[in-house]
Amino acid sequence: MAGIRESIHGQWSSRWAFVLAATGSAVGLGNIWKFPYITGENGGGAFVLIYLVCIVIIGVPIMMSEILLGRRGRQSPINTMRTLAIEAGHNTNWQWLGVMGVLAGFLILSYYSVIAGIALFHVFRTGVGTFDNATPDGIATLFNTFLDDPQALLFWHTVFMVMTMLVVARGVRGGIEKAVKFLMPALFLILLILLGYAMNTAAFDQGLSFMFKPDFHALFYYTNDAGIEVMTWNPVLIAMGHAFFTLSLGMGAIMVYGSYLPQNASIARVTFMIAGADTAVAIVAGMVIFPIVFANNLEPGMGFGLIFKTLPLAFGQMPGGAFFGTLFFILLTFAAWTSSISLIEPAVAWLVENRGMSRAGASVLSGITCWLFGLLTVFSFNIWSDVYPLHMFEVFREKTIFDLLDYLTANIMLPLGGLLIAIFAAWLMSRDATRDELDMGEGPAYISWRVLVRYITPIAVSIVFLRAIDLI
Ligand code: TRP
Q: From CA 462, how far away is CA 6, in angstroms rounded?
């Protein structure tokens, strides 16, 4: 049965091209910007541990499922779900899973582009030596002043969105593989140079113990306004949500990339490579940032500005800092770029398939839509910075529109999408179909995958969801 369908959008030139593109999608702001700041907000070690467990028991099996669905359906996620549902004798309503993914992708890209714009802006700021010998306070003030200016944020958001539309319009297969092949290793190398700097700060040990010494009490309990200790599962939900976010799972990005994967590639092997590279980048980023935080008496839980208030300190102090800093932000922007294109690819593939649009037209339409949604995030940082639309709920009390978008997509839509993908692959598709597509025989590898996606993953995701509901 294998290889019955062909994608109208073409195929990757090889298994490597897919690994590079999918790694490009996975490694991005999630690893370097988001992972450190949510780790900081959620107390460190215990959070990191739960995140790693989620990667292994939830992320890896779901990534395999997403790739296998994509490769078997060979269309945009909406049409893939529809086709595979019909093939398995089920209801075409499964296509709504693809629709939810398109929506999640739009919402994520809307704020992702604003943050990527901030990274892009830092390329120039670092290049002109703004941070040379700057103090933590000075850097924080510069950053806050920048956030206060909606026009500046809007400008960089627009630049980044245009960059994204350009690549998607040309088709994601041209060029990305080549770019990722050089840029990802280069990004990793700079992170290692920064790690060298972090090791020489007085707080390296403190940074490491923050990241790797789990304190479960601090994770599960917090003290409320009345001074009473309360238990919460929210950090677990955030760790799980981040496992989906960082691996680009749950909305069809990896599925659509999988739809261009050659039939002879081993899905398990490519998954391990992607997940391994992604995790390594995040862990090293954390090992760089927390020593800088503690060496400068900064607050690990300061929120989403963490990397922009810490890394410039390192660049301002280390020899060649302006050079390395500029290079670092260029590479970070590239990492964000190779991720952003995967966020609208499912929508673009669908518009091409079902609306007969050209790739260029579909990219522009999707890009403009995300750009418009992006205004919500731009204003969350300034004119709407004290608008908390869901303040009546305890967990959302001090969440801006940007915070809510992030929460809704990463912690709710992606895990829900992933849960449904797991259920579809493990319970609805025939055993023959999945065995065929994973192509690893009936051995222990296949059995482990099946047990994970049938039982462990859905149960784990559901428990976290159910525990988190009583937060509200
Ligand atoms: N994984 C990327 C990051 O860590 C972001 C991303 C790209 C993404 N495609 C996605 C997140 C699809 C969720 C779903 O920066």
A: 35
Which residues, other chains included, contact 173 with Cβ-Cβ below 8 Å and sequence gap of 6+? 10, 11, 12, 13, 17, 21, 260
HSE-up (13 A, CA, CB side) for residue 85? 19
Write down the residue that tokens 């088709």 correspond to: 171
Following DSSP, what letter does each residue of 329-383 receive, concatenated? HHHHHHHHHHHHHHHHHHHHHHHHHHH---HHHHHHHHHHHHHHHHHHHHHHTTT
Per-position b or e across 359-373, b if 16+ CB within 10 A of its CB? beebbbbbbeebbeb
Atom of ligand 1 nearest to the CA of 247: 1
Q: Which atom of ligand 1 is nearest to the CA of 251?
A: 14
343 in contact with ligand 1, CB cutoff 6 A: yes
Q: Is the CB of 310 under 6 A from ligand 1?
A: no
**Report field, pTM of the whole predicted structure over 0.90:** yes
Ligand 1 pocket, residue 21 CB under 6 Å: no
Protein residue with least CA distance to atom 7, ligand 1: 339
In sequence order, the 6+-apart residues with CB closer than 8 A to the CB of 132 are 316, 321, 322
Q: What is the structure's pLDDT at 471?
A: 59
Quick one: which atom of ligand 1 is closest to the CA of 25? 7
CA of 281 to the centre of ligand 1 (A): 14
3-state secondary structure of 223: strand
Q: How far is residue 292's CA from residue 352's CA, in Å, rounded to a whole number?
A: 47
* CATH number for region 15-471: 1.20.1740
- Ligand 1 mean position, distance from CA 242 (Å): 10
Name which residue sits closest to atom 14 of ligand 1, judged by CA: 248
pLDDT higher than threshold 50 for residue 251:
yes
CA 296 to ligand 1 center in whole angstroms: 31
pLDDT at 175: 63
Q: Is it the case that residue 102 has pLDDT exceeding 90?
A: yes
- Report residue 47 as tokens: 């959070």
> Where do runs of H (alpha helix) occur along 171-248?
176-199, 204-212, 216-220, 234-246
Q: Which of 282, 276, 239 is nearest to 290 (CA)?
A: 282
pLDDT of residue 16: 86
Could you tell me if the CB of 245 is within 6 A of ligand 1?
yes
Task: Return the best residue to mutate from 34, 339, 345 for the ligand 1 pocket (most ligand atoms within 8 A of CB).
Answer: 339
Q: Where are the domains of the chain?
A: 15-471
Q: How far apart are CA 167 and CA 417, in angstroms?
A: 26
Q: How far is the CA of 200 from the centre of ligand 1 (A)?
A: 32
Write the pLDDT tens digit of every residue in 351-374: 999 999 999 999 999 999 999 999
Calculate the alpha carbon distances from 384 to 141, 199, 254, 398, 410 in Å: 19, 39, 34, 12, 22
